[in-house]
Amino acid sequence: MVERLSSNRARTRRLDRVYGAIADPTRRAILSILAGGEVNVGTLAGRFPISFNGVSKHVKVLEQAGLVRRRIRGREHWLKLRPTPLRDASRWLEHYREFWDTRLEALEDFLVNESNTGQRRGDRGRRSSK
Amino acid sequence: MNAAGDPGETLVVRRVIPAPRERVFRAWLDPASLSQWMRPGRATDATAEVDARVGGRFRIVMIEGPKKYEHTGEYLAIEPPKRLEFTWISQATDHRPTVVTIEFLERDRGTELVLTHRRLPAKQLESHRRGWTDILQLLEQLPGAPG
Questions:
Q1: For labelling alongside A101, which of A37, A40, A51, A120 has CA 20 to 30 A away?
Q2: In Å, how far is A114's CA from the nearest CA of chain B?
Q3: Is the ipTM above a cut-off of 0.85?
Q4: What is the interface size between A and B, counted as CB pairs within 8 Å?
Q5: In the CATH scheme, what is the code of domain B9-141?
Q6: Using a CB-CB distance cutoff of 8 angstroms, which residues of chain A are in contact with residue B36?
């Protein structure tokens, strides 16, 4: 059960990283280029009016979100799109569904444990009115 | 396609919980209970403040390591033990009010919760919406192979 909760949490965090990564127009442009096939970092950087380091930082964010895979061949770094996390994230309602699934699971755990111990009834009237 | 202020999307989640309706209902309004289960996992913490009347507000802060996620809202309907309705505002709703309705149905095995979350930001969070149009187009271009 704990494992299931934390795997939901990990998935939610993964989705958050994807949402964050694609919020930026430069990163979306990088993804569009990579959708056409593998590209090396130098060629990619040449297509943007910002510095190599600037492009490199965006690529790192995309890698951390699992959207881009880097292969190093000799001195060249090649970048490839990984579309699966994008597909997952595009089913965006899943984000909310997982939130509630996880919460209801935790509610069930809480109520089952409560009735096993049977000593929590005193909680009833304690209601803060802030 | 969807302008701000449109009705948004609707999500329905169901779960049968082996506990009587009154107890399940109560767990949603009791801050001591909420702080136990309305949190991301066992290793983390949550605080809950509840003013359990129609028009009253709640505030739940889920704490995950150094991060705090605040969820607030207002009770729209409190009909123990059958129905609960409140607005729900969080970072995940782009800080806009969404509406959660929970029906508590008596079942042989306990209580069935039917949770309906309405007015969810359409397509994606407002700030990301343009991005999603691009991304969905990009996905359409790609071959459908899973990978």
A1: A120
A2: 10
A3: no
A4: 126
A5: 3.30.530.20
A6: 110
The most distant pair of C-alpha atoms in chain B lies apart, rounded to whole Å, by 53
pLDDT digit of tens for each residue in chain B (147 aa)? 334 445 677 888 899 999 999 999 999 999 999 998 988 765 578 899 999 999 999 999 988 778 788 999 999 999 999 999 999 998 778 788 999 999 999 999 999 999 999 988 755 444 445 556 666 677 777 765 443
What's the gap in Å between the CA of A52 and the closest CA on chain B?
23
A2-88 has CATH 1.10.10.10 classification:
yes
The answer to pTM > 0.80 is no
Domain boundaries along the sequence of chain B = 9-141
What are the structural domain ranges in chain A? 2-88
Q: What is the DSSP string of B57-78?
A: EEEEEEEETTEEEEEEEEEEEE
Give 3-state DSSP helix, strand, coil % of chain B, rounded to 5: 20, 45, 35
Q: Phi-psi category of A123—alpha, beta or left, where left has phi over 0 and alpha has psi -120 to 50?
A: alpha
A95 bridge partner residues: none
